[in-house]
Amino acid sequence: MNHARPKHADANATGEVNRTAGVVIASNRAAAGTYPDRTGPVISQWLRDQGFDPLPVRVVPDGEPVKAALADLLAERPGVIITSGGTGITADDRTPEMTAGFLQKQLPGVAEAMRAAGAAKTPLAVLSRGLAGVSGTTFIVNLPGSAGGVRDGLDVLAPLLEHICTQLAGQRDAGHPAAPVPNSGGHHGH
Amino acid sequence: MNHARPKHADANATGEVNRTAGVVIASNRAAAGTYPDRTGPVISQWLRDQGFDPLPVRVVPDGEPVKAALADLLAERPGVIITSGGTGITADDRTPEMTAGFLQKQLPGVAEAMRAAGAAKTPLAVLSRGLAGVSGTTFIVNLPGSAGGVRDGLDVLAPLLEHICTQLAGQRDAGHPAAPVPNSGGHHGH
Amino acid sequence: MNHARPKHADANATGEVNRTAGVVIASNRAAAGTYPDRTGPVISQWLRDQGFDPLPVRVVPDGEPVKAALADLLAERPGVIITSGGTGITADDRTPEMTAGFLQKQLPGVAEAMRAAGAAKTPLAVLSRGLAGVSGTTFIVNLPGSAGGVRDGLDVLAPLLEHICTQLAGQRDAGHPAAPVPNSGGHHGH
């Protein structure tokens, strides 16, 4: 929180969409180096294709390190943060729980749409518990860890991302607080 | 709460569906008179077409005035309250938060169905955070503020409204409390 | 909680999927014997067809008895518990509320998929408030009380159940706690 102001954060002073983007990969195996991270590069490239400027991918173990990575990234005030992994049903899968406390408003329809898009290909897509929502003026979304789940999620986000970030930029410029409250813990929308 | 008993409330004593309906438009611009309210008349006419008897439309600014309007309307014990506006992602959009505290039971499937119906026309429909649920024996639903969002939402409600109100009327006649608790704050279904 | 270890629980010590299944029917009329339970046998037969070993169906009145039946069944540590009934909007319909406190993780996509499957046949299917989720290493799901709602729900579960139980078995064998905490009350996923 007492980080020096990162260069990307300066973009926040303009009236334009904040095009800085964070990417967090939640995977015990990828963080331990026993398994290569394959979804981080896909998400970063997709963000570039959408006109965003991704920060280096953060690959962290499941659970509390995801919360720490989100808090760290939110201090840089990116326009969007995309996570992948940890949305399933095992005890290790805790990305939604690590994300929930940062969201002042949840967007359940984004999560629904991603599950519906995935379910058209595999019934197991309905098991993702990933959240989407707003933290300050940052849009955060949890994608599944699988390559297919990431692709389906990005397809759902493609027609939404610019609109969401434009709305959050307008809100920021109207004097609403840009700073998230990473440790608030319980102020989600409903 | 200390209002004189309105004429519509007397319908509650019969064994029939309570056909009184409230309409709340949440819009800073419409409430300030800088923009005409176009969705209120559409919703009122639709309610008449469904055999309901709408009270005058209440046009209020976003946020706390929405909660006050709901509390005021609930004191009249209508069968249904439909709101429009304030379901989006900006800081002003707080209609779901203003509604949640009144709902003893949420009906997430109604909100899902409205988003799905809208998404068939525009992907942005998934961004609505509108709630639906039951407060005492009143059904409450949050529609988006856009004309298209209202139309899609009403299309989803058309085959449901009579059934919902019939079930709530049966519950009322079985001796369950008809009176909502507008300031309860936290007794939603799940 | 101080029950003798039931025979089915011994299956938990193996590395295999826990094929014990519980079935709870929530219905005031069926519990009073004024109406035969028709969905319990359908669910039990479906479970057998899926390779599971159903315990005797428990038919209980709506509300608190559902919570007691769930607590009692969870003490036997089954792999899955399916409930039917009490998911609607009347004051008696409280199965989701009785279930929520047992779920450490909710699976909203399973409930969404069941409502969507039902809505393809009747719009009223969107009114089900049934939950799905994980309690310890037990998967719990609330189906509606109607024969059609049960059938639609089971069709959605068919391609998911083996995968869910395999994942929960792996988690159990990895040393995560198998024992649910039936009276925890508030540790659900999000």
From TrEMBL, chains A, B, C:
SMART domains: MoCF_biosynth
Domain spans labelled MoaB/Mog: 22-164
Associated pathway: Cofactor biosynthesis; molybdopterin biosynthesis
A GO MF term: nucleotidyltransferase activity
Alphabetical GO biological process terms: Mo-molybdopterin cofactor biosynthetic process
Coiled-coil region list: none
Matches recorded under SUPFAM superfamilies: Molybdenum cofactor biosynthesis proteins (SSF53218)
Domain of life of the native organism: Bacteria
The entry's keywords: Molybdenum cofactor biosynthesis, Nucleotidyltransferase, Transferase
InterPro entries: MoaB/Mog-like_dom_sf, MoaB/Mog_dom, MPT_Adenylyltrnsfr/MoaC-Rel
Gene3D superfamilies on file: MoaB/Mog-like domain
CDD domains per the UniProt record, alphabetical: MogA_MoaB (cd00886)
Name of the protein in its database record: Molybdopterin adenylyltransferase
Biological source species: Arthrobacter crystallopoietes BAB-32
